[in-house]
Amino acid sequence: MGKQRQIRTSLMYVVENGTPTLSGFAAWTLDHLNDVAFQSIRGLAQQAGVNANTVTRLAREIGYDGYESFRQDVRELIQAAPPLYGDRAEALRNRTGQDIWSEALSTSWNNVETLFQSDGLATIEACVAPLLAARRVYSIGVRSCYGVAHYFSYVGAMAFDNFVQVPSMPGAIIDQMSALTEDDIVIAITYEHYSAEVVRACQVAREAGAKVLALTDSYQSPIAVGAWKVLRLPMAGPQLMPSLTTAFITVELLLAAMTAKDARAAKRISGFESRIMEHGGYVQK
Predict the structure, then answer these.
(1) Which of 2, 92, 134, 153 could hold 185 in an S-S bridge, CB 3.0 to 4.6 Å?
(2) Dist CA 262 CA 245 (whole Å)
């Protein structure tokens, strides 16, 4: 029996055989599994109109040692299917600000801790020398990921002369990808739902023999398949969309590590600052 069917069968048993309070809450839970995936005990209890003890009792009644293990199983099921942003938004309804902030802080911290595990840092370190040696470094991200790609290309171009400005005009992604060589690296950023433009760009890059560094949410992501390196980004959290905190930290770490190994980077950045100041681009205190 699949895990989802097992959970639903167990909940139905409680609906039919549990105490009135547990039965009613189990019936409610069957229709609100997305809320279970992203709510704390207190938040779920408030939304369902029960007390926190009832939430814990239901989890134990269907075979879990507590709510967290139940929520983890439900979250894995939700994440196994294409996540609907509307469902994430719906899960925020009737939650208190303190409850959302508390979970966002907790999950963000866990995301960063996971990113900083040895394999993640080792992958980042292994990318530094090839990025410095590449003929060109391209950054590809659209929609919510455009900000990450823009930051990487903008700050990277301040310090290194092989960074290409992130494409922003219609058709510009393929225009850039069509000029790729095997000496280039493409940093691609997307998560489920995977942006078609980024997936296509990675296909073109692989066909050209360029290296693809995939920043994505899963090793089964379409941009991870055939990639040179994959940095799997933990993106859990109650936010409207998957959290991009680890994406920004990753590109910041890459740029910092590259700067540490390039003796000319500081001089280039100083020159950039001087030019912007000279032309009034910065306002001083």
Answers:
(1) 134
(2) 26
Query: Which long-range contacts link 28-34 to residues 24+ away (Cβ below 8 Å)?
Result: 29/58, 33/7, 33/74, 33/77, 33/78, 34/78, 34/87, 34/88, 34/90, 34/91
pLDDT band with cut points at 50, 70 and 90 for residue 78:
low
Q: Which residues are CB-contacts of 214 (< 8 A; sequence separation ≥ 6)? A: 188, 202, 221, 223, 224, 227, 229, 230, 231
Which amino acid type is present at position 259?
T
CA-derived radius of gyration, the chain: 23
> Is residue 88 a contact partner of residue 100, using CB atoms and an 8 Å limit?
no
Gap between the Cα atoms of 126 and 137, Å rounded: 15
pLDDT value of residue 144: 94
Q: Output the six-digit token pair for 157.
A: 């171009």
Q: How many CB atoms lie under 10 A from the CB of residue 100?
A: 18
**Domain made up of 3-95: CATH architecture:** Orthogonal Bundle (1.10)
Q: pTM here? A: 0.71
Closest CA to 190 of 229, 247, 128: 247
Would you kindly state where each structural domain of the chain is located, as residue ranges? 3-95, 114-278
CATH 3.40.50.10490 given to domain 114-278: yes
Say which residue the tokens 């560094």 belong to. 213
Type of residue found at 110: N
**Measured distance CA(251)–CA(155) in Å, rounded:** 10
State pLDDT tens for residues 83-97: 578 877 887 877 788
**Bond before 279 cis per omega within 30 degrees:** no
